[in-house]
Amino acid sequence: MSRTSLVICFGDSLTAGFQSPTKDNPVGRETPYGQFLQSFLGETGQVRISGICGELTGEMVRRFQRDVLDHQPGYVPILGGANDLGWNASLSEIMRNLATMYEQTLAMGGVPIPVTVPSIRVEDASGSREGQEWVAEHLARRSQLNKLIQDYAGSKGIACVDLFTVTAEPESGQLAGIYSNDGIHLTTAGYRLFAKQVAHILKPLLARDMQQ
């Protein structure tokens, strides 16, 4: 089946490329990974970015038809759930919303690319038992959600971007310092790595589509 080369990167602030103000970058900025993805893909794909800061997966579902399906993309990298986790939403509810978008993409004839939720970074967590327990609990919920995402991808035979693993410290499981803008969002290096992981999946798929 030949698909369009349109890629719509869909999600929340991690898709919008949000960065909090820092000493090095006092005004803050957005560096959407879709911009890096476009440079990696070149002319083989047309990348659009649809990310809204602070969005929950339920809100993503409600705009999915208008912002994604109506444009008939061939491929849709989908990253959501970080904000839901912050509000202690149930994992089953988050996964149900994500699966709705995956399924709608497949039904349209497109290919969803599920993305795992990256880790968090709390610099002073090791200073107290309470801090360690808080981080451990949050990492555990991320791990559980990410396993659901990966299991879904495996059940459908589609590729999944494990953004958590490639941006986390192997020892602590926390977001690596080089990729952590504010403990939640990514740095420019983190967003570029995100794009590289998506491009690794997309390049052979787009090349195959061009041959059909």
In short:
The protein is α/β, with parallel strands linked by helices and 212 residues long. The chain has helices at 13-16, 33-41, 57-67, 82-86, 91-108, 129-156, 163-167, 188-211, and strands at 6-11, 18-19, 29-30, 46-51, 75-79, 111-114.
Instruction: Name the CATH homologous superfamily.
Output: SGNH hydrolase
Query: If helices are DSSP runs of H or I spanning 4 or more residues, what is the number of helices?
Result: 8
The neighbouring-strand order within the major sheet is 4-1-5-6
Q: What fraction strand?
A: 5-15%
Approximate shape: globular
Q: In terms of topology, how is this protein built?
A:
Layout: E1 6-11, H1 13-16, E2 18-19, E3 29-30, H2 33-41, E4 46-51, H3 57-67, E5 75-79, H4 82-86, H5 91-108, E6 111-114, H6 129-156, H7 163-167, H8 188-211
Parallel strand pairs: 1-4, 1-5, 5-6
Antiparallel strand pairs: 2-3
Please, could you describe this protein's structure?
By secondary structure, the protein is an alpha/beta fold. The chain has one domain: SGNH hydrolase (Rossmann fold, 3-Layer(aba) Sandwich). Helices cover 49% and strands 12% of the residues. The protein contains eight helices and six strands. It has helices spanning 13-16, 33-41, 57-67, 82-86, 91-108, 129-156, 163-167, 188-211; strands at residues 6-11, 18-19, 29-30, 46-51, 75-79, 111-114. The strands form two sheets. A four-stranded parallel β-sheet has the order 4-1-5-6, sandwiched between helices. A two-stranded antiparallel ribbon has the order 2-3. Helix 3 (57-67) packs parallel to helix 5 (91-108) and helix 5 runs parallel beside helix 6. The chain is globular.
